[in-house]
Amino acid sequence: MSETASKKRSEKLGDKNDLRIKAIENGTVIDHITPGQALTVLNILRVSESFTNTVSVVMNAGGSRGDKDVVKIEGRELTEKEVDAISLISPKATVNIIRDFEVVQKRKINKPDTVCGIVKCINPNCITNSSEPIETRFIVTDDEKVKSLVLRCVFCESVMTEDLIKYIE
Amino acid sequence: MSETASKKRSEKLGDKNDLRIKAIENGTVIDHITPGQALTVLNILRVSESFTNTVSVVMNAGGSRGDKDVVKIEGRELTEKEVDAISLISPKATVNIIRDFEVVQKRKINKPDTVCGIVKCINPNCITNSSEPIETRFIVTDDEKVKSLVLRCVFCESVMTEDLIKYIE
């Protein structure tokens, strides 16, 4: 089998169910997602029923580093904003960009120093929750004690640490 | 490789990403889901971030019958109510029960004659939307003109045909 044919070969997904899905030609593989967070990643990427490209998801896969989720999405490369949003819910994820069946970029997600326009402020009286056209902005820090990211709103100083998922816009 | 080892062998999912997921030992494969509806199926099965078994999803897979979604879920067999709910959004789906790595049952989903406790009535004044402990019940028919299922509430005669997904409880 030629190199190209090998790359293009279908992959067996099912056990006795003969589902075969093509390898990604162009797109993104998000690997090492925190177990259970794959559906949140799909939400961040706005993948819904109207999305027509192939998407594969494995939740709670047994990888070499223990359980993880994986999302493969055809025909999409992620924006910086999307990567930042994923970092908030899945700080150990890696993002691999695929072009012409090759991994052209493989990178770990880094905790961003600030996140803008991604998370809604928990404070209903924050100016970002008013009718003013002001984008949210948070300073991101780690909190060793709670083993979680801490977001501090630059406008109202509100601190958010738990349930960040609920506030991702 | 022995038969058992063959059954138990891992499967390659990724292209150059070496994700391997185990074959399902016990669980359910829902195949031939209407393209895009896999996430609704996960909702129906209450699969969320707290679910700890392995779940694999492919959306818009190119199968022999054209595009379809597939959901594989470890350690779960579906209730009749869950199968009925799936039938409303994906009438061509098949449900395969896996036990000890074998497909022990493979069946097409049939349109149910009635659905009870699955869909919320569209009529806010329906008795099923009051504080009375009355389970919803709809007569299900096909409508050739709109090529869609039609649900008629047995209590208030309201007819529902579009956006059934929104009303699945």
Summarize the structure.
Chains A, B: Residues 19-109 form the Aspartate carbamoyltransferase regulatory subunit N-terminal domain. The structure is a homodimer of 169-residue chains. The longest helix of chain A has 10 residues, at 80-89.
Keywords:
homodimer; 169 residues; Alpha-Beta Plaits; SH3 type barrels; five-stranded antiparallel β-sheet; four-stranded antiparallel β-sheet; 4 helices; 37% strand; disordered N terminus
Structural features, described:
The structure is a homodimer of 169-residue chains. With 169 residues, chain A is of the alpha+beta class. Chain A has two domains: 3-108, Aspartate carbamoyltransferase regulatory subunit, N-terminal domain (Alpha-Beta Plaits, 2-Layer Sandwich), CATH 3.30.70; 114-167, SH3 type barrels. In chain A, 16% of the residues lie in helices and 37% in strands. Chain A is built from four helices and eleven strands, in the order αβββαββαββββββα. Chain A has helices spanning 3-8, 38-44, 80-89, 164-167, and strands at 10-12, 20-22, 27-33, 55-63, 66-74, 94-99, 102-108, 114-116, 137-143, 148-153, 159-160. In chain A, the strands form three sheets. Chain A has a five-stranded antiparallel beta sheet with strand order 4-5-3-6-7, covered by helices on one side. The first copy, chain A, has a four-stranded antiparallel beta sheet with strand order 8-9-10-11, with helices on one face. The radius of gyration of chain A is 18 Å and the shape is globular. Residues 1-19 of chain A have low confidence and may be disordered. Chains A and B meet through β2, α2 and β4 of A and β1, β2, α2 and β4 of B. β4 of chain A pairs antiparallel with β4 (55-63) of chain B, so a sheet runs across the interface.
